[in-house]
């Protein structure tokens, strides 16, 4: 069978000989060009993918989550959350466009629960929800031909590629790197129905679009934003400096902890530059 290539492949001199026809037929342009060449030890095995497809896929998600899905384009992922009506985080994930489909890059341990929650919202919408096991999430600190993590450029590069059974696991390396930059994610760190979305630093990490219109939890999230009233924050601190009463998660292997602190109690902490700059802005 003739190898499938794209103009981008031709420019790089890379053929897609590892992309199987069945996967290629299902994949949109972004996924087809994302797999340029294999990079070892880049797979995030603690991540899973949920494919949202069907003629109402984008409008369906648009009314549920914190990011604008209608304008999402291939190769430009976005971090988003699914919240409670009170604006507390239930799930956080990264969105990828694949043609008109959306791929949700989420925690492996939370994928089934997220899929169940989305199914409850689907009702009679013309939407198909399913785990997509043909692709895997990859990460590297330096991979200039791949997209940057949408939360913070310093997190490195992130992309999707066809599943490889024998690739090394980069999950622990990415976790350590992410936490060293003060970025929290997932149910263990954010808590499920415990932390308001803006307290998870969603505004600073590009996790919310205030112009997109209504979504679950939008009212309280928008009110906090426009009144500049984010009184608490999730913060990564040295384990020895953690407040047991405010500790969300201890990470002894890294010597770190995730605390949920009032802003006035954060004075003197060695905060990452992106969070320090946010806290330095005058409050209303």
Secondary-structure blueprint:
Layout: H1 7-12, H2 21-26, H3 29-34, E1 47-53, H4 57-62, E2 78-83, E3 89-98, E4 101-107, H5 111-122, E5 128-131, E6 135-140, E7 157-162, H6 171-180, H7 186-190, H8 218-226, E8 232-238, E9 247-251, E10 256-262, H9 273-280
In angstroms, what is the radius of gyration?
A: 19 Å
- Report the portion of residues in β strands: 15-25%
Largest sheet: 5 strands, antiparallel
Strand order within the widest sheet?
A: 2-3-4-1-5
The structural domain count equals: 2
| CATH homologous superfamily (4th level) name of the largest domain | Aminomethyltransferase beta-barrel domains
Helix content: 10-25%
Quantity of strands, as a count = 10
Task: Indicate the CATH topology of the largest domain.
Answer: Alpha-Beta Plaits
Highest CATH level, the class of the largest domain: Alpha Beta
Principal-axis shape equals globular
Based on secondary structure, the structural category is alpha+beta
Average pLDDT confidence is: 87
Could you state the order of secondary-structure elements as H and E? HHHEHEEEHEEEHHHEEEH
The DSSP helix count reads 9
How does this structure look, described?
The chain is α+β, with helices and mostly antiparallel strands. The chain has 2 domains: 163 residues, 2-Layer Sandwich (Alpha-Beta Plaits); 100 residues, Elongation Factor Tu (Ef-tu), domain 3. It is 24% helix and 23% strand. It has 9 helices and 10 strands. β9 and β10 form a beta hairpin. 38% of the residues are buried.
Structure, briefly:
The strands form three sheets. This protein has a five-stranded antiparallel sheet with strand order 2-3-4-1-5. A three-stranded antiparallel sheet has the order 8-10-9. Strands 6-7 form a two-stranded antiparallel sheet. It is globular, with a radius of gyration of 19 Å. It has 284 residues and is α+β, with helices and mostly antiparallel strands.
